[in-house]
Design a protein that fits this description.
The protein is an alpha/beta fold. The protein contains 15 helices and 15 strands. The chain has an 8-stranded parallel beta barrel, surrounded by 4 helices. Strands 6-8-9 form a 3-stranded mixed sheet, covered by helices on one side. Helix 6 (about 145-160) packs parallel to helix 9 (about 200-225), helix 10 (about 245-270) packs across helix 11 and helix 13 packs parallel to helix 14 (about 380-395). The longest helix is centred in the middle third of the chain and has 26 residues, at about 200-225. The protein is globular. The protein starts with 7 loop residues before the first strand and ends in a 6-residue tail after the last helix.
């Protein structure tokens, strides 16, 4: 059986990691625009303003803003059926709370989406992918404040109306469950915590407001166009119990609860018993009105989008570990586990019985140009080959309904975790280094033609 003829092959990226031109067209600052580059051994620094003495990789990125037509030609050459992209919220509403949208921002995305459609590439659009308006953080306290619900819904409605009939697949918040998993979920939810705040409580409140915003967006999106398919998007990282010790099994159980908390609410439309157990474990109480319960129930998603990169090992004594004695480690301490993808797909599909869309999967490599001008990224080919094989087994053996597969990212981009350029994911090399130097010229890697052939054969030849 393998992939259906309608299976959507493509690539994925976020506006803040590729577009550059961070103030062009009256765009406002996003939370990504104040995350500076890291240095060796030092994490990326975040402030509420621009520091002129620091380097911000998102400000220029790879200048997709100016070069998208040429890049789309390369995507078409690979045979892309779709491109997962995001709309930068502050390009549409620079501050986030304005009465009227920014026409220049809407026009940019209109031209971009029309260019994709002209090349028979279906746009898959994420409404909020780590680029909410910074003004909403500094002025309203970000998602702590329920006022952001209406701001997000207003933005979503404008975008749904503008691109009605042009975009079929949408997602609300990228990796929304990372709001709980990150110590300070700045990019995910615009949150940094004050000394007198309970981080768990703030995360729960912010998540609840995001749930309501997403559900209202789903409702409005369906009202505007009944053909809209609107999904949630989670980072899904399966975990194995380290030993057969029952305490390790319980540690794994609690690890899963913190992620299923998000999918339960967005897919099932309610705070399930699992969700209540998570709230109790966090020591947080939450008052939910009948009106809010009705919104969550009515605004359930049509499908689940997920990112998958690696797996963890969990134990009662240590907690979460990346290293697994049965698996190899790739660059940047990434555990390589193709079978984990099949596990993720079956776990999600069997629990929720909703179509799945694998919208992020990839491997970072420090690609080098050899003396012949080639980039021989055979490790990337092997990575994707093994993961696609597991997708096929999920379809054939596990009967999982999978909409498509978009690799992260089809072209080199700024790493969200480190701000690096040498942490490369693409089939297309971009001439730029970690300090922002380079021509930005694009060069096909060996994997480019390999992925092209995979798409041509609909996955039959890997």
């Amino acid at each position: 059986m393998r992939m259906k003829d309608s299976f959507l092959w493509g690539g994925a990226f976020a506006a803040n990691q590729v577009e550059g031109q961070y103030l062009a067209g009256n765009k406002g600052l996003s939370v990504a625009d104040v995350v500076a580059a890291s240095t060796v051994g030092v994490p990326r620094t975040i402030s509420n303003t621009i520091d002129v003495d620091k380097y911000y990789p998102s400000h220029d990125a790879i200048d997709f803003y100016s070069r998208f037509k040429d890049d789309i030609k390369l995507f078409k050459e690979m045979g892309f059926k779709c491109l997962r992209m995001s709309i930068s919220w502050p390009r549409i509403y620079p501050k986030g709370d304005e009465e009227h949208p920014n026409e220049e921002g809407l026009r940019f995305y209109e031209i971009l989406i029309d260019e994709l459609l002209a090349n028979n590439i279906q746009p898959i659009v994420t409404l909020s992918h780590f680029e909410m308006p910074l003004y909403l953080v500094n002025t309203y306290g970000s998602w702590r404040n329920p006022k952001l619900i209406d701001f997000f819904v207003t933005y979503s409605k404008v975008v749904f109306l503008r691109f009605k009939g042009k975009v079929r697949y949408w997602m609300t918040f990228n990796e929304i469950n990372e709001t709980m998993n990150k110590k300070e979920p700045w990019l995910q939810a615009g949150l940094k915590f004050e000394n007198d705040e309970n981080p768990n409580e703030i995360k729960v409140i912010a998540s609840h407001n995001m749930f309501l915003a997403a559900a209202k967006a789903v409702i409005i999106g369906h009202e505007i166009d009944r053909n809209n398919q609107i999904g949630c998007m989670v980072q899904y990282t399966p975990a194995y119990a380290k030993t057969t010790n029952p305490k390790d099994a319980m540690a794994r159980h609690f690890y899963y609860i913190q992620n299923q908390f998000y999918t339960d609410i967005m897919v099932k439309g309610e705070y399930t018993a699992l969700c209540l157990a998570q709230l109790k474990k966090l020591g947080v109480s939450l008052e939910i009105s009948e009106e809010e319960k009705e919104i969550l129930k009515k605004g359930t998603v049509d499908y689940i989008g997920l990112s998958y990169y690696f797996t963890y090992v969990v134990s009662e004594s240590v907690g979460i570990e990346k290293k697994n004695e049965f698996l190899t480690q790739g660059q940047w301490n990434r555990t390589l586990d193709p079978i984990g993808l099949r596990l993720a797909l079956s776990e999600l599909y069997y629990r929720y019985n909703k179509p799945l869309f694998i919208v992020e999967n990839g491997i970072p490599l420090d690609d080098q140009i050899d003396e012949n001008g080639s980039i021989n990224d055979i490790d990337r080919i092997n990575f994707f080959r093994k993961h696609i094989e597991q997708i096929q087994l999920s379809i054939d053996e596990d009967f999982v309904d999978i909409i498509g597969y978009t690799t992260w990212g089809p072209i080199d981009l700024v790493s969200v975790s480190t701000g690096e350029m040498k942490k490369r994911y693409g089939f297309i090399y971009v001439d730029k280094d970690n300090d922002g130097n380079g021509t930005l010229n694009r060069t096909k890697k060996i994997s480019f033609d390999w992925y092209k052939h995979v798409i041509e054969t609909n996955g039959k030849e890997l």
